[in-house]
Amino acid sequence: MGIYVCGLTPQDFTHVGHARAYVVFDTVRRYLVHRGYRVRYVQNYTDIDDKIINRAREANMEPADLAERFMEECEYDFGRLNIQPPDIQPRVTDHIEEVVALVAKLVETGHAYATADGSVYFRVRKAKTFGTLTHQKIEEMRVGARVEADEAKEDPMDFALWKGAKPGEPSWDSPWGKGRPGWHTECSAMSVKYLGAQFDIHGGGIDLIFPHHECEIMQSEAYTGKVPLANVWMHNGHVTLKAEKMSKSVGNFKTIREILETYRAEELRFHLLNTQYRKPIEWDAANLEGDAQAFRRLENTVLELRSRLERAVRAQDGRQTRVMKGASAMIGGGKRSFGEAMDNDFNTRDAIAALFEFVRETNRLLEESEDLSIPTLNELNNAYQEMLGVLGLKVGQGQEGPAVLGQLVEYLLELREEARRRRDFKTADGVRERLKGMGIEVEDGPKGATWKRRR
């Protein structure tokens, strides 16, 4: 299965709007792999662009150096959010030859024409289709509103495939003189190279529907002669701030790093997935806090389950042998509900709702019995691993050495139990209070002490 997702223009630190888009498509990819598909995921970098050139001037840097710096920063931020790297991540500056070949063929077939300044434009009225995604007609488009006017064009509707060089800007050789790729052209050249003339899914933000994806469809189909370019088009909703798209140009953005000063990466990722991908997310600190708390409740259940499993494995003395009636059916039903939600247009919000129903059932099982069998505990744990893996959520991450911490807590509880047997209640209570100060809640039960993290 081939997936192409329009990537970033690396000119600054990534913000939450970027995070939303790439968390969405990372999750789509994860689920398809989970379902058994062999996925080839391509996501480009637009590493030369007007924005990069202008920003580089402001920073007194070379455009290539600025782009390189922010590609590295982007990969660091995305890594923290557990966004898997694409299988292929091409840069436009490494694919000038492919862009020139595409433009040259469009000129040869009469779909494009060169102008006196060395630019090349696509003849929109010669395209077989227009408005594939927007369902608009050419006559409905107004010059100056959504169409760029230019005296060099044959028609105001035409768009640039190749931009003639301007003084002081990066440029490359072409049959029409020095210049650089138009924004739309790069994606067509790279998707055809890595996925072929037709592929399964094309993704991007909702703002790319027009003009970027409409232009891409027209030029790609004219170049290859194959229709359609992509079988499925997926567009994620924006993250908005006061109902306006979060963006660098507007200045109303929150960087990923700003948010991760207060919240863990898993909490931010959970928040971004707790809305169906097509819908917008209005940025609100209270909503993020609510989702962060919900994730911690989920996390506490999974960590308690793992702790119970670890204790059962260590004991191996015949006590943890109770197989709860109906446990396997409950686990199968939870996984089925989760899968049905994901099958319904990758509805992560409904999938998370199914996951929390599974959490409630798990808590009921854990409360009803202290001696669940190792197979039952394993089956529960594997179900969580499966569902959390699809969502790209890691439990216990971002805390101070979670695995080591768990071992230390268990050791302290053993010391506390020894103190209680000696009737040294002052020491036992002291251990409990110190753990409480560390965010660890200890609960005493008939089968011994259990613990869970809180925030």
Topology (SSEs and partners):
Blueprint: E1 2-5, H1 16-34, E2 40-43, H2 50-59, H3 63-80, H4 96-108, E3 112-114, E4 120-122, E5 159-164, E6 179-181, H5 183-195, E7 199-205, H6 209-224, E8 230-236, E9 239-241, E10 244-245, H7 256-259, H8 265-273, E11 281-282, H9 285-315, H10 327-343, H11 348-368, H12 374-391, H13 402-421, H14 425-437, E12 440-445, E13 448-453
Helix pairs in contact: 1-12, 2-3, 4-5, 5-6, 8-9, 9-11, 9-12, 10-11, 10-12, 13-14
Structure description:
- With 455 residues, this protein is of the alpha/beta class.
- It has three domains: 2-261, 3-Layer(aba) Sandwich (Rossmann fold), CATH 3.40.50; 295-391, Four Helix Bundle (Hemerythrin (Met), subunit A) (Up-down Bundle), CATH 1.20.120; 402-453, no CATH class.
- It contains 14 helices and 13 strands.
- It has helices at residues 16-34, 50-59, 63-80, 96-108, 183-195, 209-224, 256-259, 265-273, 285-315, 327-343, 348-368, 374-391, 402-421, 425-437, and strands at residues 2-5, 40-43, 112-114, 120-122, 159-164, 179-181, 199-205, 230-236, 239-241, 244-245, 281-282, 440-445, 448-453.
- The chain has a four-stranded parallel sheet.
- α1 (16-34) packs across α12 and α13 (402-421) runs antiparallel to α14 (425-437).
- It starts with a strand and ends with a strand.
- The model has no long low-confidence stretch (mean pLDDT 91).
